[in-house]
Design brief:
single chain; 9 helices; 213 residues; mainly alpha
């Protein structure tokens, strides 16, 4: 058989791939994961009793915006890494933007606050628990993303795992913001970011084991 004929016969038997598969499966995984995380947070921590009041002030939306921005950036990168030829999409620049913005807000806050109050702003009332709560709340989202990735074909397994971790950490932190009463940007930048970084680290460690195909 001629090579050209063989190629034609093989290509005629190829089943078209649904171009929306990655987006649809990731969307479903995130919806399931966030719903499970909301339920977990409701039972475990409960909502901030003054949530309605908090939502009328900018610190609440700063927290939510920061967490969503990091989570969304990681989801975009994860969707690209889900494909065999996938590469991270401007990872450094994408994650740098929200971090730089919150860092700038933190600097302004510190400049306007007497230095004697800096430690209280930085630690708040829950610094020792915050990162671990964020990490715990990222768990259901991370597991749902692992389920989604089992249908994909990532090749950069460690990076894909890290992006899944950041996605889960960012969205888990967003849910935690519904409970957390802390208001300072420097607290957000430090302790929320640490929780998200822990989720990313775990994702990077587990990626080569759990995402292999």
């Amino acid at each position: 058989m001629e090579t050209d004929d063989l190629i034609l016969r093989l290509s005629a038997q190829v089943t078209p791939i649904d171009a929306t598969l990655v987006t649809r499966r990731l969307t479903l995984a995130l919806a399931i994961g966030v719903a499970a995380t909301l339920a977990l947070m409701w039972v475990w921590q409960g909502l901030n009793p003054d949530l309605a009041g908090a939502m009328t002030h900018h610190p609440f939306w700063m927290k939510v915006g920061y967490c969503v921005a990091l989570g969304a950036a990681a989801v975009v990168s994860a969707s690209r890494l889900a494909r065999p030829d996938g590469e991270a999409f401007s990872i450094v620049l994408t994650f740098a933007a929200p971090i730089v913005i919150v860092a700038a807000i933190s600097a302004v806050e510190l400049a306007l606050t007497p230095s004697s109050q800096w430690l209280a702003m930085w630690l708040g009332h829950s610094w020792s628990a915050c990162p671990w709560r964020v990490l715990a709340l990222s768990g259901p989202i991370f597991l749902s993303l692992l389920w989604a990735f089992r249908a994909f074909a990532p090749t950069q397994l460690r990076l894909a795992g890290a992006m899944a971790g950041v996605s889960a950490g960012g969205l888990g932190a967003m849910v935690y913001a519904l409970h957390c009463p802390e208001t300072s940007a420097v607290f957000l930048l430090t302790w929320y970011s640490l929780g998200i970084a822990l989720a990313a680290g775990i994702g990077a460690l587990l990626g080569p084991r759990l995402l292999r195909w």
